[in-house]
Amino acid sequence: MYEDTIAAISTPLGEGGIGIVRLSGREARPIAETLFRGRLAHRRLNYGHIIDPENGEVVDEVLVCYMAAPYTYTREDVVEINCHGGPLPLQRILQLALRYGARLA
Predict the structure, then answer these.
(1) How far is CA 19 from CA 26, 45, 83, 84, in A?
(2) Which residues contact 48 (CB under 8 A, 6 or more apart)?
(3) What does the radius of gyration of the chain's CA atoms come to, in whole angstroms?
(4) Backbone angles phi, psi at 49, to 5 degrees
(5) Residue 2 to residues 6, 22, 25, 26, Cα–Cα distance (Å)
(6) Is 28 helix (H, G, I), strand (E, B) or coil?
(7) H-only helix segments in 17-81
(8) How far apart are the first and last CA of the chain?
């Protein structure tokens, strides 16, 4: 079994209203706390922004849901980042998650 935290885009490719980037693993919450500006309450949709910590740039306005282990379908901590759909915001958020400790699922 892998110990790493994984990240992936979990919505279909192409244009859409909402896109989701999902993180799963021990570092899911710390990675989210690095990228997310807003309250990160357990099992709630939390409104805020994803920022690039290197330059403080706002990447997107998002809703984030944090679910703690073991009460998730992976039995690991899970963070779902709901952003604007389309490839650009999804790719930028995924790349930030990878930069800050996740590996591609």
Answers:
(1) 23, 15, 5, 6
(2) 36, 37, 38, 39, 61, 62, 64
(3) 12
(4) -135, 145
(5) 9, 17, 9, 11
(6) helix
(7) 28-35
(8) 13
Cα angle 37, 95, 105; round to 5: 110
CB 83 within 8 A of CB 89: yes
Per-residue pLDDT of the chain (105 residues; tens, 9 = 90+): 568 999 999 999 887 899 999 999 999 999 999 999 999 999 999 999 999 999 999 999 999 999 999 999 899 999 999 999 999 999 999 999 999 999 999
In angstroms, the CA 68 to CA 79 distance is 9
Strands 36-37 and 45-52: antiparallel
* Domains (range + CATH), the chain: 6-104 (3.30.1360.120)
